[in-house]
């Protein structure tokens, strides 16, 4: 089921709810954390270009079905123009108390196949806007789970996708590398 969820839009009829953060990130480094309820069916946690996230969920499901092939059948090369471009969004897929790691992940997991790891109590998401990179962490041990590129050519928003129901608790923005004052346990720190 987790592998099928990696191709988020399928022709099955599950409820899919997208929650997009109300604050778009346009510069700097930002970090936030969330707790995903381990009993959630499937949850995707990540970031995406604000404009593309809204477009994504307005497209009919049949168009983005895995059975739909956007190849025109000719070799004009037009389909290859965005091969090297980073994707407009990056999500970590969570379900049944586990995290599915995408192929090419650098994480050393306890799973002999290297495909899933246990869901930590909190997941941290760090977006480096200038580098066009998002990293996902076990927010308790600060061990990196997965890192990938993401298109930061416009405002980028935190995003959460619930497939078939789920729950998460979003923690307040922890740090932002834009001279914000962060209070931790009564101590103040300027980044």
**For the report, how would you describe the main beta sheet?**
6 strands, antiparallel
Q: What's the CATH H-level superfamily name of the domain at 16-59 and 86-102 and 115-170?
A: SPRY domain
Rg estimate, integer Å: 17 Å
**Ends apart, CA distance between termini:** 41 Å
Total beta strand runs: 14
Question: Could you explain the architecture of this structure?
Answer:
By secondary structure, the chain is mainly β. It has a domain at 16-59 and 86-102 and 115-170: Jelly Rolls (Sandwich). It has two helices and 14 strands. The chain has helices spanning 2-6, 50-56; strands at residues 16-20, 29-36, 42-49, 89-95, 98-100, 116-118, 123-128, 133-138, 143-149, 156-163, 168-170, 175-176, 181-184, 187-190. A six-stranded antiparallel beta sheet has the order 1-10-3-4-5-6. Strands 2, 7, 8, 9, 11 and 12 form a six-stranded antiparallel beta sheet that branches. The longest helix has 7 residues, at 50-56. The protein is globular. The termini are far apart.
Features:
191 residues; mainly beta; Jelly Rolls; 6-stranded antiparallel β-sheet; 39% strand; disordered C terminus; ConA-like_dom_sf; TRI46 protein; E3_ligase_FN3/SPRY
């Amino acid at each position: 089921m987790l592998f099928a969820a990696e191709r988020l839009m399928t022709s099955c009829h599950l409820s899919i709810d997208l929650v997009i953060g109300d604050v778009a990130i346009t510069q700097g480094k930002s970090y936030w954390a969330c707790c995903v309820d381990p009993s959630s069916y499937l949850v995707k946690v990540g970031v995406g270009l604000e404009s593309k996230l809204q477009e994504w969920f307005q497209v009919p499901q049949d168009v983005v079905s895995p059975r739909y092939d956007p190849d025109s059948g000719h070799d004009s090369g037009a389909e290859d123009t965005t091969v090297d471009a980073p994707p407009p969004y990056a999500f970590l897929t969570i379900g049944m108390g586990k995290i599915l790691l995408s192929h090419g992940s650098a994480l050393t997991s306890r799973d002999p196949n290297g495909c899933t790891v246990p869901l930590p109590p909190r997941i941290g998401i760090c977006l480096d806007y200038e580098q066009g990179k998002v990293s996902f962490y076990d927010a308790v041990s600060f061990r990196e789970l997965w890192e990938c590129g993401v298109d930061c050519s416009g405002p980028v928003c935190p995003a959460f996708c619930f497939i078939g129901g789920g729950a998460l608790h979003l923690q307040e923005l922890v740090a932002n590398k834009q001279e914000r004052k962060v209070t931790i346990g009564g101590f103040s720190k300027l980044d």
